[in-house]
Design a protein that fits this description.
about 190 residues, alpha+beta, Archaeosine Trna-guanine Transglycosylase, Chain: A, domain 4, 2 domains, five-stranded mixed beta sheet, three-stranded antiparallel beta sheet, about 35% strand
């Protein structure tokens, strides 16, 4: 199962039901504004192809597909373990939530060696995640094509608020709001686990 990283504010918006979309940069941006084409095959396998410039013919696929279940990655740590049981108490950064989970390793080590400081979302395994998301839609568009409804589905109050958030997350030249990069738009719903 693949993971998907979200910032703490986005995790809170997902938990409250305010966030049902996320936009992620397309890895290879076309060198010309209209130098790409959208391919849709059987409704589920979508891709884009660069149609101009030095990478002409390059096909890119989205990381996530419609119908796929992914686990949400966030800051976390193992806080405790129940003696004699195969459960760990997992705590989540910026949340009071605790979840008992079944880890896939570290069971022969003393809890003093297993309990850790906060870990990066990059290193969160699926077993430690408290949320699963089902991808319900995938498309590609320019980031500034977002509508007010899209900004709300991103957990923001307006397109202007989303533009500020986008630039905080993507400050690199070529990825900023003003650069209007191509993005994958993933729609999702919380999955019951």
């Amino acid at each position: 199962m693949k993971g998907i990283i979200f910032k703490p504010e986005s995790v809170a918006a997902i938990l409250s039901g305010d966030k049902t979309q996320t936009r992620r940069l397309v890895k290879h941006q076309p060198s010309e504004p209209d130098g790409w084409a959208w391919n849709l095959a059987e409704g589920k396998a979508a891709s884009i192809m660069l149609t101009a410039g030095p990478e002409e013919g390059l096909v890119q696929w989205p990381r996530y597909r419609v119908g796929e279940m992914v686990y949400l990655k966030e800051g976390w740590r193992i806080a405790d373990r129940l003696p004699g049981y195969r459960f760990a108490l997992v705590r989540y950064r910026n949340s009071r939530a605790n979840v008992y989970a079944v880890p896939d390793r570290d069971w022969d080590r003393p809890i003093s060696q297993v309990a850790q400081a906060w870990r990066s979302p990059l290193h969160m395994p699926a077993w430690a995640s408290r949320l699963r998301l089902t991808i319900t839609g995938v498309r590609v568009e320019r980031v500034r094509k977002i509508s007010e409804a899209g900004a709300c589905a991103e957990g923001c109050e307006s397109v202007a608020a989303y533009a500020r958030l986008w630039d905080q997350i993507n400050p690199t030249p070529g990825a900023r709001w003003a650069d209007n990069p191509l993005v994958w738009v993933y729609e999702f719903e919380r999955a019951e686990t």
